[in-house]
Amino acid sequence: MFVDSHCHLDFPDLASREEEILATMAANDVGVALCISVKLEDFPRVRSLAERHAHLWATVGVHPDNDGVEEPDVARLVALADHPKVVAMGETGLDYYWQKDAPEWQRARFRTHIRAARETGKPLVIHTRSAADDTLRLMREEQAGEAGGVMHCFTESWEVAEAALEQGFYISFSGIVTFRNAKDLKEVARRVPLDRLLIETDSPYLAPVPHRGRTNEPGWVVHVAEEIARLRELPLASIEQATTDNFFRLFRHVQRPV
Length: 258
Description:
Layout: E1 2-7, H1 12-15, H2 18-27, E2 30-35, H3 43-52, E3 56-60, H4 74-81, E4 86-95, H5 104-120, E5 124-129, H6 132-141, E6 149-151, H7 158-166, E7 170-173, H8 183-191, E8 197-199, H9 221-232, H10 236-250
Parallel strand pairs: 1-2, 2-3, 3-4, 4-5, 5-6, 6-7, 7-8
């Protein structure tokens, strides 16, 4: 069984095709998917997906790109996370690619999520783009390693991966690792310890080869696993087993299908 550790099934491109999306997951032996929250206003949709389907799970959080939305505080996040299908805090982090002024509100929001994760004991789903140094610094300052978590859709250098690994975090690869021009990222995928490796789609974005350019979906996470297996010269079954075991080890509140 494969697991998609990060997807956005509540987004319109996928929500309108829910049954089709779930059927493709089943056809490709993708047995579990984690549905990621990006705004508190939309969190009820994410939670509802998880409530309706035993093999879907949810997070709660506010994406760092989202300005002008309901701002979370620790108490609010802790309260929303007190649900059996909500298993992680995020998507949170820093993004200076779109927020080029590197706003302080982003850093304050990230700290809020880390504190809520530590209080709940539920891991973090961290997004970082053009902000690696500050992301790692805030993780250290707020002792994010106590909660643990994953650096999702990783696109940074080996040095950044190593620093996150030192704090106890997992590294997750998306369809980007299948792209021909992602040479540096492929090298990182070769080097991440097998027991800290996760795979994801970040659907509806970043469809892997051979579906590049199309609307991504969780059933295609197998192509990410295939590329990592090729890069590491391992059987696909080894990557399937490792990434699935890692997912359930990190997201310990998720019930593993029997």
